[in-house]
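Researcher: Here's a chain I'd like modeled. Treat it as a single chain, no partners, no ligands.
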Amino acid sequence: MKIADICRRTPVTVPATASVREAARAMQAEHVGVIGLTDPFDPGRIVGVVTDRDLVLHVLAGERPVDGQVAAQACSSRLHGVSAQASVHEAVQTMREHGVRRLLVVGDDGQAVVGVLSMDDVLSVLANELAALAGSLQSGMAREGGAPVQPAPLVRAAR
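Model: Modeled as a single isolated chain. Structure tokens:
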């Protein structure tokens, strides 16, 4: 399975000059924990990301008042990504290597951001795979005369 099949297809973005409140409200409205910050002069180019954790640790827990702070002050400009053609295994390795829970997904050109992959997306896929495997084992047991067991429901992570 390729990352393109499981990632959020359109990254939620605001200009890097947006206030931290605007960034937080966009996260709330779109039900996401990460938002891309775009270059004010090139809105198609993501120059940083802000996570809900960044807002708490760098803004709310900081010494400066929240009002007046721009999203770029709370962002990480070290962007970590993975190809849309990468495997789940490759994405997990990248997350672990960089200590992040979300990755930007880049298209075939290696530049354009085409989506965002979260740890929740990966866990949802893995949970579904495990549920399918459990169902297969239970079917085999039933065919062999064992007691049938109710299969676990499939899960889908909220985005």
